Amino acid sequence: MAKKRAHVFISGLVQGVFFRAETQTRARRLGVTGWVRNLWDGRVEAVFEGEEEAVERMVSWCHRGPPGARVEKVEVTYEDYTGEYDTFGIRYGGGWY
Prior knowledge:
24% of the residues lie in helices and 43% in strands. The protein contains 2 helices and 6 strands. The protein has a 6-stranded mixed β-sheet, covered by helices on one side.
């Protein structure tokens, strides 16, 4: 199967609603690698890498998010797959968890 990478920015009420934690749980369940983090401007940023179908499922989920989120906009850029990640993590201030 084809591998894919998506770089995503999600806007709306997306911080303080467990968006990062739920993204991590779903990505790991689908075998998607990469990371997610909060941005200073209130958006959430994520990079998803993996099988094309799994990455597309993650991007699709970002349009609704977890209960409590109100997603207003999702910007997606597809980039070359790199395979640089071993797992899916949450980034905090440059660190990984």
